[in-house]
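Field log, afternoon session.

UNIT: design team B
ACTIVITY: writing a sequence onto a fixed backbone
BACKBONE:
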């Protein structure tokens, strides 16, 4: 497709109002909810069925922040009982949460690439329109 990329369009059943932050989410996850929900609400790209995925995204993003704070305060390494210096266990947790948050962010349309994936525009009526045929 040439020129401007299509805008992400509201989907049928997209919620104009999303529920408040779930009380069970940890503080970092609540902060992420408050950060992303206004954009999702404005675009109306989330349905009621997508809310558990949004909660999971916020939980994963919050876990990344919590693990990063742990590493910042405790350091990148730990010393085992045998005196071996090893990478802090929070690295693995942070990596897994980061991987999951990136996957869910793409599913929810929170990344630039996923926002640009939209249905063909009205003036693009076939797959050969950009070949000048």
């Amino acid at each position: 497709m040439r020129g401007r990329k299509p805008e992400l369009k509201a989907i049928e059943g997209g919620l104009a109002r999303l529920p408040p932050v779930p009380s069970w989410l940890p503080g970092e996850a609540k902060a992420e909810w408050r950060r992303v929900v206004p954009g999702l609400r404005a675009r109306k790209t989330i349905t009621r069925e997508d809310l558990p995925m949004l909660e999971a995204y916020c939980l994963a993003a919050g876990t990344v922040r919590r693990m990063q704070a742990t590493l910042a305060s405790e350091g990148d390494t730990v010393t085992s009982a045998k005196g071996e210096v090893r990478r802090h266990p929070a690295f693995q947790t942070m990596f897994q949460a980061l991987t999951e948050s990136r996957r869910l962010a793409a599913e929810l349309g929170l990344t630039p690439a996923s926002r640009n994936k939209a249905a063909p525009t009205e003036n693009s009526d076939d797959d050969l329109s950009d070949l000048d045929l």
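LOG NOTE: The CA atoms of residues 28 and 65 lie 7 Å apart.
NEXT ACTIVITY: expression trials, pending approval
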